[in-house]
Amino acid sequence: MSLVDSYVNPYTSLTVAKFGGTSVADFTAMSRSAAIILHAPQTRLVLISACSGVTNILVELANGVTDTQQRHALLTRLTDIHQSVLSQLKQPQQADEAITLLLKNVAELAKKAAIEKSVALTDQLVSHGELLSTHLFAQILRELGIKAIRFDIRDVMRTDGQFGKAIPQPSIIRQLSEQHLLPQLKKHVVVSQGFIGSDEQGNTTTLGRGGSDYSAALMAEAIGASTLEIWTDVPGMYTTDPRIATKAKPIKEISFSEASEMANFGAKILHPSTLVPAIRQQIPVFIGSSKAPEQGGTWIRETVSDAPLFRALALRCNQTMVTLTSLNMFHAYGFLAEVFRILAEHKISVDLITTSEVSVSLTLDQTDTSGGAPTLPAQALAELSELCRVEVEQDLCLVALIGNQMSSTKGSAKTVFSTLEYYNLRMICYGASPHNLCFLVKAQDAKSAIKDLHCAIFE
Ligand code: ADP
Ligand code: ASP
Ligand code: MG
Description:
Blueprint: H1 3-8, E1 15-19, H2 27-38, E2 43-48, H3 54-62, H4 68-86, H5 93-115, H6 119-126, H7 128-143, E3 148-150, H8 170-187, E4 189-193, E5 196-198, E6 204-206, H9 212-222, E7 227-232, E8 253-255, H10 256-264, H11 275-281, E9 285-289, E10 297-301, E11 310-325, H12 335-345, E12 350-355, E13 359-364, H13 378-387, E14 389-403, H14 412-419, E15 426-430, E16 436-442, H15 443-458
The protein binds adenosine-5'-diphosphate, aspartic acid and magnesium ion.
Aspartic acid is lined by residues 20-21, 49-50, 55, 129, 194-195, 209-212.
């Protein structure tokens, strides 16, 4: 029996719960989330995000705000968000002291970033959102009578040193969790940070925007949890983003494969990597609304009772498409190998690919915290330009239809193409996966394409 098993056995159904930014936005939201934990004694580890809006302010500061007045205005907004919660605590002293210190750090780091920004400094700065919110949430739990402690996840969440989108190291995370976290879980409800980690040298890293979902799944894996709960602002996963299609319907149950496609193809409700640890350990994932837990939510599991042809639609914006054209590609070999050698040398990760006789189009993966469209580094562009004609296009969004056995079911593409006959569809990818059909559209057409498809397929 491993250490994990011996610690975890007393809690046969240990749960990790994650609360996103809107679920810890202010005192009221935090209190609602705390009530969920109060009624779930099996929840021992709670990972939370920064209070809503805080990471955006920190990213802005990390990008270097040189105007002192503007910088101070942003710092004041950060202080106000946290002060408003502090002012409603019964015993704010401990959290107040810690928060004052952290906000002082933020001011110093923001000043540094205004002089010279760097990816390491950005991670150090943006990590403060989660470092701050966890002080407040732990205190709110204690004031409800829960034996809660705040834990610094950087003691266990080991990643590589790729700032902005660090890669977690699950076996080290598990070892460190056995040493430092499991003994605490036996005695307390542990409140800790999503999104952030630490490399071997102790530098603070982050897992990419929206990364708290992924943190929670990694921790569920590390401590051998039997359930992962993701508490957010909607009661589960819907047939598409309900902000885009108001008639979107909640999904009660969805398979790991379908939900992974949804996350990968941009459904913001889950960070794209969230389900990787859950699938590795077969941990069922529940998504629910912290505002309305009584409404239930979505269960994501290995096997589910139905496998509809069309399950849902996802949208991912800020796409960069690169088209490489060369007559040398015609009936030749080695051209694509050379293209991918250059891309690999510059550590450029490719997402979608389509080819013709003389050209290949590809989209670039998002690789940092900025959230904007990825760019082709100048050196890579120069090397590719020596080989072929290179065109880079932005202002594109990726629409994905997720379902089951789509590539082997006659007529499934017809519904899509007949509904969208007046749209300019680019880079159509169909058939490689039985679970999806996707294509690019101009950014300004994306939401109406989703609405039209949703209406034709799900309403
Ligand atoms: P959190 O801060 O809790 O992590 P996010 O904003 O990251 O929350 O994710 C929740 C949001 O995801 C919802 O408010 C919704 O607009 C969006 N979303 C995108 N696709 C879907 C979908 N298929 N189902 C439900 N919500 C979705
Ligand atoms: N606070 C981080 C963000 O806003 C991580 C998260 O919320 O998941 O991206
Ligand atoms: Mg999120």
